[in-house]
């Protein structure tokens, strides 16, 4: 039966289910065991599955990912936690030159069933290197799947699907949404991992987002409805690959598109979406595709992050500009 739980708890329950059903699944990372992770996402797992299945690693991201690659070569399915988004870069070389390339390098003979969990994004008042949104850096690398859930149900099921994938998955967890609650049905038959979903239907304009910005776009749609505007909200769910077919279907109906993400607008995932949808929907569009995101600047101190991150007013302003054409 469905149960209401926080997004962080949903990930915990999904990891627990994977550990129970497949002895080759391992959970690894800094403080994931005894502490249960800094956000307590892995709380209780080491106690129940032991230190050989839930492993507290040294503070060495490159070593953590390199070890996971070796374990995958031996038939394991490691789930690696990078403690914060800004800490992933010591492991970037391992991820993009080894993990992402191994399948192609071996002509398909070697599988790389590695999941890299990365809490990402702002909104929690953290210090430097704790609020980054580097998803576009990984989406640009062939051989990696990049996903981000926005709700508890997707957090649970997308983790299951990521662990079952024979290709590496970068699983971005929207840390500001860890405590948001939603229904999780452990008997649900989920749709494809990389398919976008329509979370709210509308007729005047499409809002497309993923991860932490989906909830904001729903709030924008509520505010716009009070002014008689009907906005459709898409949860993209996957950044690589992107489900352009679902976006295209929506835009052909609404004829306008605004893409929202926390990452900087410059060369962000919204740029690729804007380019592709302009190609696909040129004769349907009644306004240019607009993008709302962070600024092309280092992430600011916590007291300024509300000015840096997209908020209700900035997204509504983009909606008004698109509808004014």
Automatic annotation (TrEMBL):
Quote the CDD domains the UniProt record gives.
TPP_PYR_E1-PDHc-beta_like
Using the record's annotation, list all stretches that form the Transketolase-like pyrimidine-binding domain. 5-180
- One matching Pfam family is Transket_pyr
Which keywords belong to this entry? Oxidoreductase, Thiamine pyrophosphate
Stored InterPro entries = THDP-binding (IPR029061), Transketo_C/PFOR_II (IPR009014), Transketolase-like_Pyr-bd (IPR005475), Transketolase_C (IPR033248)
Record flagged with keyword Repeat: no
GO molecular function, a single term: magnesium ion binding
Cofactor(s) recorded for this entry are: thiamine diphosphate
- PANTHER family for this protein: PYRUVATE DEHYDROGENASE E1 COMPONENT BETA SUBUNIT, PYRUVATE DEHYDROGENASE E1 COMPONENT SUBUNIT BETA
List the protein's name: Alpha-ketoacid dehydrogenase subunit beta
**What species was this sequence derived from?**
Streptomyces bauhiniae
